[in-house]
């Protein structure tokens, strides 16, 4: 009986063979502009300056069978989902290097020699990784689908095989194998006391597997675990009103501290989300949203004091510090009005100030210092920049209209202005620009005209 038992089965294959070539030089962690403090980031004419040419090839193959099965009785409807995914990722990594020697400097300008293969073993690797994930979930609907309970489980097998040469002549290679397996349970509960109102509670466990990179300071050899919980409700009234509220909390275990601590940390991110859609009259719609986020370190962890000598001159515990790049207060406001053949729209975004480092220092400071090239992929000098990300407010406006129409012939046009008030703000990051600031786009104007015939 297909009314009681039904479903579908799919089998998917996907893959790619992709090559990438990217470069960076030995100044990429340096934002120093004062020659009295050390090498300045614009100086490329000194013995030892080098450019890395990273050659990468990624070969990925994967297949995924997936079964959905619906079993419907008079009182209970169940939707089973069972599947698995197997994926292989083979990565071939080679690094060429061009290094400025004394003999390459003529009249104060270095004439970079041709690239040669880097003889550093860990700059030339082959990785043969695969993972297998299997999952099962069961959506149970009761009381004419007013109550839905969906437990689920996912288990992931990670197999890493990293090959790199033991010697600089590449005559002997060694293999390093790593196994990481994780359970990822989940539970979703939804209850509809009335047709247009739903309450929900969700839980999910997820993880980020070990991350490998050629710059050792950002390498992890452990799983980062996340337990996510959210509780909320959604209410709608006809096509006039929709109001959503949501509380969320994410517990992070063994969270990568971004170089601020030699060991992983625990963290908690929690907050509330409020969202309203309102259409008071035909053609007019408002959208307002607000999010508050409190994201902090919850475990004791000492900082790496050496990287911040000159800003903080003694070790300290980063427990209780806010996570960087997280704006505690975020607002969104949109409005759209359509009259006859013309539509006018406004969209705006506000993000409050945020710290750019786990130091949680508001004052903008930059310190530069020698680095250990064995730990930083060959870099001998770098800088740390701390301070606040500024608050920013962006307002965009757009108007579009059908200017002329006759039968199937039509002329439409639109005018859009992004960042109407030309607000100046910036992002912060490593290796982006002096003092670690990367400017965001200013005001831009786009005019569009289209003729259909």
Automatic annotation (TrEMBL):
Membrane topology qualifier: Multi-pass membrane protein
Domain of life of the native organism: Bacteria
UniProt KW keywords: Cell outer membrane, Membrane, TonB box, Transmembrane, Transmembrane beta strand, Transport
Pfam families, sorted: TonB_dep_Rec_b-barrel
GO CC terms of this entry: cell outer membrane
TonB-dependent receptor-like beta-barrel domain residues: 15-398
Keyword Transmembrane annotated: yes
Localization terms from the record: Cell outer membrane
Gene3D superfamilies, per the entry: TonB-dependent receptor, beta-barrel domain (2.40.170.20)
Protein's recorded name: Ligand-gated channel
